[in-house]
């Protein structure tokens, strides 16, 4: 399914495992990876929450999209995308046509539990308050778009990153 020149995009909700899976997948497939959120933090020299709050939500997503659309013009990468990357029409087109898009899907309980364990990361949409209802609301708003952009859907509930990464590699028919 994956042409060697095509990118691999990992999409999903916050807490789905994108930033954990991308480096392991990169190592196993010998393809460099990019974590779009981490890159924006480096470029802007500020934490995501600071960037998010200093701009409007719309401007943050525009910044994220501009960076993403410019960067994909380069060589093949594995992308751990920000959770909101699918909110932009141009990004959706790229996700559908410029590579293989993998949706990491997890139950609301799994997302909540992972976010509770990951106190090191700011989640601007949650305003530092990890709330199951807010998570569920974001999922309901985005799930159709996530699924429409995905070529492959991997459920990550009760799986470690090695198992998930191996499932992705098998799904890519490598």
Write a short abstract of this structure.
This protein is α/β, with parallel strands linked by helices and about 170 residues long. It has helices at about 20-30, 35-45, 50-55, 55-70, 90-95, 110-115, 130-150, 160-170, and strands at about 5-10, 35, 80, 100-105, 150-155.
Structure description:
The protein is α/β, with parallel strands linked by helices and 174 residues long. It has a single domain, classed as Rossmann fold, CATH 3.40.50. The protein is 52% helix and 13% strand. The chain is built from eight helices and five strands. α1 packs across α8 and α6 crosses α7. The longest helix is centred in the last third of the chain and has 18 residues. The chain is globular and about 40 Å long. The model has no long low-confidence stretch (mean pLDDT 86).
Topology:
Blueprint: E1 7-12, H1 18-29, E2 33-35, H2 36-44, H3 48-54, H4 57-71, E3 78-80, H5 89-97, E4 99-105, H6 108-117, H7 132-149, E5 152-155, H8 161-171
Parallel strand pairs: 1-3, 1-4, 2-3, 4-5
Helix pairs in contact: 1-8, 6-7
What class would the helix/strand composition place it in? alpha/beta
Strand order of the largest sheet: 2-3-1-4-5
CATH C-level: Alpha Beta
DSSP summary: helix tally: 8
* Rg, Å, rounded: 15 Å
Beta content: 5-15%
Distance between the termini: 8 Å
At CATH level 3, the topology is Rossmann fold
Q: How many β-strand stretches?
A: 5
Largest sheet: 5 strands, parallel
The residue ranges in which pLDDT falls below 50 over 5 or more consecutive positions are none
- Mean pLDDT, all residues: 86
The overall number of domains is: 1
Shape: globular
* CATH superfamily annotation: P-loop containing nucleotide triphosphate hydrolases
The helix/strand series, from N terminus to C terminus, equals EHEHHHEHEHHEH
Estimated helix fraction:
40-55%
Gross CATH architecture: 3-Layer(aba) Sandwich
């Amino acid at each position: 399914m994956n042409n060697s020149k095509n990118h691999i995009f990992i999409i999903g909700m916050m807490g789905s495992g994108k930033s954990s899976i991308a480096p392991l997948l990169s190592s196993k497939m010998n393809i460099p990876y990019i974590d779009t959120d981490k890159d924006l933090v480096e470029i802007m020299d500020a934490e995501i929450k600071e960037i998010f709050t200093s701009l409007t939500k719309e401007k943050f997503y525009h910044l994220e999209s501009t960076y993403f659309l410019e960067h994909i013009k380069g060589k093949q990468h594995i992308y751990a995308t920000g959770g909101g990357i699918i909110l932009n029409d141009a990004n959706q087109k790229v996700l559908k046509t410029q590579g293989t898009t993998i949706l990491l899907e997890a139950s609301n309980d799994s997302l909540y539990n992972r976010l509770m364990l990951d106190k090191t990361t700011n989640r601007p949409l949650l305003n530092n308050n990890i709330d199951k209802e807010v998570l569920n609301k974001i999922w309901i708003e985005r799930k159709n778009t996530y699924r429409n952009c995905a070529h492959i859907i991997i459920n990550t509930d009760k799986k470690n990153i090695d198992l998930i990464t191996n499932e992705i590699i098998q799904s890519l028919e490598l």
